[in-house]
Specification:
The chain has helices spanning 5-14, 27-34, 47-63, 83-91, 125-137, 149-152, 154-167, 199-202, 226-229, 280-283, 325-331, 346-355, 359-373, and strands at 16-21, 37-42, 100-103, 141-147, 171-179, 190-198, 307-308, 312-313. A 6-stranded mixed sheet has the order 2-1-3-4-6-5, sandwiched between helices. With 379 residues, the chain is α/β, with parallel strands linked by helices. The protein has a domain at 5-221 and 358-373: Vaccinia Virus protein VP39 (Rossmann fold, 3-Layer(aba) Sandwich).
């Protein structure tokens, strides 16, 4: 889908435009929009994710006073689109002075819980394509997101550095593993971010030193070392009643995300959850998240990764069911104004939610990029 020249001019005049690869539900996009960037092109080839993205982002924007309808501009696999196609669709072939590319390619080939095929895997190969397109499209900056095992696994990291060596010819590149919980997300989830700033762009920043070290979101970690700083409660007997511990930030607790039975009807996607088909829904203790399946969240603890496996969604802390779509979205710090259509199946919804970047973490990274480009970064 090609944008009109008038719409391009308006967007570029107002905000720095962003091309979003592997857009999914748009959680990373939301963080960048909140940091005053403009998403002008999106790509996603899962047909259910395309519809979920449109509905969720459009309703979220409407609540924020933005009437712009969300859409996926290209639904082909990224390998089926050439860099010139992307520039043509996003900018009518005319690159603006400043723009960025963001994206989180599929991570299963790098994940410890996946097949660990790395860059040789069908999905892992897309990470290589992402960086090839960076060098060809030549954005002012880029943000790449993936699982931490891409950095922690020596073999994966070695191949990644070989790929990045080509990128470093034109970009200053820095990478860091960030844990979501330190940024106000009720979830213990580490994600790898790699940020690249074009050397000609970075030179405009008066705070640049000889060696490039990107100022990671020190402007935002509201809860430094949250996993060890607080005394988190242990496992409790299911439905036995739990007292709220003193000193815990409720923002980091699952209790801030869950719905009581009386609330389910009044929240969009609040009654969308898998049925209780097993006696285990009554037997697993609150806070027991150590088993391979049937993990029950604790009201006053953080969640592990929001969704995991094939339809393996966490159990509600004190009700005999799995958490709902709305509760999973909240754990990913997605606003309640992000509403998903009822007609799309739960499997696709939970998969899309689990794949996404927690919005508060995405915003922290995006805001750091915005501050650097605006020459506001603290030393």
């Amino acid at each position: 889908m090609r944008r009109t020249q008038n719409s391009i001019k308006t967007d570029v005049d107002k905000k720095i435009p962003i091309l979003s690869f592997f857009s999914g539900g748009g959680f990373l996009d939301m963080g960048f929009e909140m940091a005053d960037f403009e998403i002008v092109w999106t790509n996603e080839n899962d047909k259910d994710f395309v519809e979920l993205h449109k509905a969720g982002i459009t309703s979220w924007r409407k609540k924020r006073g933005n009437k712009k309808v969300a859409e996926i501009f290209n639904t082909n696999s990224i390998e089926e689109i050439t860099p010139s196609d992307i520039v043509s669709e996003a900018f009518n072939g005319i690159r603006p002075e400043k723009f960025g590319i963001i994206g989180g390619p599929p991570c299963q080939d790098f994940s410890t819980s996946g097949n660990n095929m790395g860059f040789d895997g069908e999905r892992g190969h897309l990470t290589k394509v992402f960086f090839e397109y960076i060098t060809e499209i030549s954005p002012s900056f880029f943000v790449f997101e993936n699982v931490r095992n891409l950095y922690n696994n020596n073999e994966h990291k070695k191949k990644l550095e070989q790929i990045l060596s080509k990128v470093r010819k034109s970009y200053f590149v820095d990478g860091k593993i960030l844990n979501s919980i330190n940024y106000g997300v009720p979830q213990d989830r580490n994600r790898l971010f790699i940020i690249g700033i074009k050397k000609t762009e970075a030179a405009k920043n008066s705070l640049m030193e000889q060696e490039f070290n990107f100022p990671w979101p020190t402007v935002a970690p509201r809860y430094k070392n949250a996993l060890t700083k607080y005394e988190w409660p242990d496992v409790s007997k299911f439905q036995n009643g739990v007292q709220q511990p003193s000193g815990l930030p409720l923002e980091l607790c699952v209790n801030s995300c869950i719905l009581k039975e009386a609330e389910e009807e009044n929240h969009p996607n609040g009654k969308e959850y898998f049925g209780s088909y097993s006696s285990k829904f009554w037997k697993v203790n609150e806070g027991n998240t150590h088993s391979r399946s049937f993990k029950r969240l604790h009201r006053y603890r953080y969640s592990p990764t929001a969704c995991y496996g094939n339809n393996e969604v966490h159990l509600h802390p004190f009700l005999p069911r799995r958490i709902s779509v709305r509760e999973a979205l909240r754990i990913q710090t997605v606003a309640d104004s992000y509403v998903l259509p009822a007609e799309i199946g739960l499997t696709s919804k939970f998969k899309m939610i689990g794949n996404g970047v927690p919005v508060k973490l995405a915003f922290a990274v995006a805001k750091s990029v915005e501050r650097f480009l605006a020459n506001k970064t603290d030393k």
